[in-house]
Write a structure and sequence with these properties.
The protein is α+β, with helices and mostly antiparallel strands and 318 residues long. It has ten helices and 22 strands. β14 and β15 form a beta hairpin. The chain is globular.
């Protein structure tokens, strides 16, 4: 909120406070808050696509887009129509195999490109690390997605959810002189990551308790790492049990989403909303400065029966 009670865009807020808000390490390197976390909750799976790596994105004046997924139990009583994610490629797939399926895009209909991938059924309470350059078609579960603050992609599947995908999405983020060049699209891929024979071991995210939480072993709260493989961002899940409080310290600034329960976050009321009408403000999102994170934030669960669950996303490793 501004001095007159007006709403301020978050990027303007960051620009105004700079290093005092997000810390000198991130500010001096990026001159902005370079990540965000969103929720997507699609009825169907998304089409198979890839996000550019650094050098390809930079040539377009954009940034790479690594991302990660976590499937919160609180938000997934129903997994919708296609809770299967296609990730990467089968280890035996060749560059020519993939090029042949991409070439079918121009013919219309289904290029059947996900036949070259593997489908993974959604496991609630787990997630995936998806670096830039890895092909993916996220399934239909409600998904918490920390990611780099970028929007650059190449849509590789020509048919999804019983309808054609327009071919301009294949060439959306391709230099004008490379439109129609399938070799450029193939070069977007990190081939080694896509055909990794240990893809699950290297990319799946199984939550594990933070060192601070494990050391305290408190009956009143638990904190888990839920996103931890990417150098670009990370995320934790904090659970405060009914009637308990905890002061949590972190070394870096972070964003917050409350996904269950209600209580106090510092001096602010915090609650996971049950209904949001267009234009309404809520008490479920916060941003914690580096200074406040290091000093510690006092979090209290005011419910006698329900846990207070908070997701926290962090920027690049410093």
């Amino acid at each position: 909120m501004g001095a007159e009670g007006e709403l301020l865009p978050f990027d303007e807020f960051i620009d105004h406070h700079g290093a005092d808000l997000i810390g000198s390490s991130i500010w001096d390197t990026h001159h902005r808050w370079p990540v965000f976390a969103k929720f997507f909750d699609n009825q169907e799976a998304l089409p198979f696509h890839v996000h550019h790596r650094d050098h390809h994105a930079a040539a377009l004046g954009k940034l790479a887009k690594p991302e990660a997924y976590y499937y919160p139990p609180q938000l997934n009583n129903h997994l919708a129509n296609h809770p299967v994610s296609f990730l990467g490629l089968r280890p035996q797939v060749t560059r020519e195999d993939l090029k042949e399926r991409l070439a079918r895009f121009a013919d219309g209909g289904d290029n059947r490109i996900t036949e070259l991938s593997l489908g993974y059924r959604t496991q609630i309470g787990t997630g995936w690390d998806v670096p830039a350059g890895v092909l993916h078609a996220p399934g239909s579960a409600c998904t918490y997605e920390p990611q780099s603050a970028s929007d650059v992609l190449c849509m590789c599947e020509s048919w999804s959810n019983s309808r054609e995908v327009p071919d301009e999405l294949l060439w959306k983020d391709v230099p004008a002189d490379r439109v129609g060049d399938l070799e450029y699209v193939l070069d977007l891929l990190d081939w080694g990551l896509n055909v990794d024979t240990d893809f699950v071991a290297h990319r799946q995210l199984i939550p594990h308790e933070t060192a601070e939480s494990a050391a305290e072993a408190s009956p009143g709260w638990t904190e888990n790492w839920i996103v931890y493989r990417s150098p670009s961002f990370s995320a934790k899940e904090l659970t405060v049990r009914p009637g308990h409080s905890v002061t949590v310290t972190d070394t870096d600034a972070y964003g917050v989403a409350v996904i269950q329960g209600y209580g106090m976050f510092g001096r602010h009321a915090a609650a996971s909303p049950t209904l949001i009408r267009f234009g309404e403000l809520t008490d479920d999102e916060f941003f914690v400065s580096e200074q406040a994170a290091r000093a510690g934030v006092r979090i209290t669960n005011l419910s006698a029966t329900e846990p207070l669950v908070i997701l926290k996303h962090f920027g690049p490793r410093t």
